[in-house]
Amino acid sequence: MEELRSISGRCDLAVSAPGRLDFLNTHQDYKGLPVVSVGVNLRMYMAGSIRADERIRIISLNLRDEGVEYVDEFPSDKPELRGHRWFGDYFRAIVKALRSRGIEVRG
Asked: Which of 21, 42, 49, 64 could be cross-linked to 10 through a Cys-Cys bond (beta carbons 3.0 to 4.6 Å apart)?
């Protein structure tokens, strides 16, 4: 978590969640179906801060460690998907979905 804070220089929010594996099928829980899951020794970490320029910046430390492109930045009012399995598209899609429901998302 400290590494995330050191990259951004500022951190208004830091969260972590445990990883899990789902034995039945992908996304069963989102569909309201039974889930047989098991915890794994992995965690997801996120840190964020509010920006004045209305842009969202996503950094993947895992991708950085793999030596591939690991920074995604986009305007909060135009989160267009890049495609081609771009890691940032997951976050862009979240912003698009929230905005389509009238929820303001800022940088």
From this structure: 49
Q: Which of helix, strand or coil describes residue 80?
A: coil
Strands (DSSP E) contained in the chain are 13-22, 37-48, 55-59, 71-75
89 CB neighbour count, 10 Å cutoff: 19
Q: Helices then strands (H, E): number in the chain? A: 3, 4
9-37 pLDDT, tens digit per residue, is 677 777 888 888 877 666 777 777 888 88
The structure tokens 């951190």 sit at 11
- Kindly state the tokens that stand for 67: 């030596």
Q: Within 13 Å of residue 69, how many CA atoms lie on the same side as its CB?
A: 7
